[in-house]
């Protein structure tokens, strides 16, 4: 009898991760003999040795390990090396290969709404998620500016990927056609917080918020009211997860089922 393959997410904290729910649903829907679980990991070197020793088939990597994990892998995709973040490990007969699906997950969610080439894109934030968005939108040919509460961090990220840094006061003057919030502003419990003034958002914009708890953030509510096109954080989360599933199984991900189960959970728990 073939034993089920084991997959997992490593991070710290990890208790609230929705990845086990999403991936176990995907495995079941696709008839894969596999199980996905969450591992709270402090000692990354030991955890990766464990992945090798136990023959764990694939790993999702989340905060704070996305950069540090690179040095423990046998091969890393060029894009993941450039962005210096791996969120997916595939165990190919003992050879641990690292990928980044955050970039494509985020970009696919945006490019369903518009072609980014030549568009003025303003990214709010300069943390881990902003790295994927800035890198991806620059690569897609957009004119990218970013602003951040801590300017030094914003300047550093902008310089690294060839974007422009703008102060919060000067951000409206950039006349963005696309606005992406990658800060945690608006996330539970501060659901009334807005990362930009309401007057900033107009009907010609595409507004994406990568926060997914709550799913409809105040920013997205305001954007909808002002006639802008909106993209919620679930699209990026499911998008990056679907690409992980495809790397692990070689099969097309049951995206609809993955989205439905996460949505159901968010509706019941947020
Ligand atoms: P991170 O690395 O900690 O970065 C947080 C960013 O938010 C920084 O730019 C920080 O600015 C800014 N920030 C935090 N509090 C702020 C405040 N009160 N006012 C203004 N700026 C503030 O976090 P991350 O991993 O990038 O995640 C950011 C958010 O994205 C989280 O809500 C996370 O759940 C969400 N996320 C969603 C997905 C998805 O798939 N949808 C994926 C990853 C992350 P400073 O530099 O000044 O501290």
Number of domains: 2
Examine the coordinates and then state which fold CATH places here, giving the name of the CATH topology of the largest domain. Answer: Rossmann fold
Strand order of the largest sheet: 2-1-3-5-6-4
Q: What small molecules accompany the polymer chains?
A: NADP nicotinamide-adenine-dinucleotide phosphate
Radius of gyration: 19 Å
Distance between the termini: 41 Å
General description of the model:
The protein has two domains: 5-100 and 235-268, Rossmann fold, CATH 3.40.50.10860; 104-231, Rossmann fold (3-Layer(aba) Sandwich), CATH 3.40.50.720. 38% of the residues lie in helices and 20% in strands. It has helices at residues 19-30, 44-54, 78-83, 102-111, 128-139, 151-161, 218-225, 233-249, 255-269, and strands spanning 5-11, 34-40, 58-61, 75-76, 88-92, 95-99, 120-124, 143-147, 164-165, 178-181, 206-209, 229-231. It has a six-stranded mixed β-sheet, with helices on both faces. A six-stranded parallel β-sheet has the order 9-8-7-10-11-12, sandwiched between helices. Helix 1 packs antiparallel against helix 9, helix 4 (102-111) crosses helix 8 (233-249) and helix 8 packs across helix 9 (255-269). The relative contact order is 0.13. The mean pLDDT is 96. The site of NADP nicotinamide-adenine-dinucleotide phosphate has 23 residues, from helix 5 and helix 8.
How would you sum up this structure in a few lines?
With 270 residues, the chain is α/β, with parallel strands linked by helices. The protein has helices spanning 19-30, 44-54, 78-83, 102-111, 128-139, 151-161, 218-225, 233-249, 255-269; strands spanning 5-11, 34-40, 58-61, 75-76, 88-92, 95-99, 120-124, 143-147, 164-165, 178-181, 206-209, 229-231. It is globular.
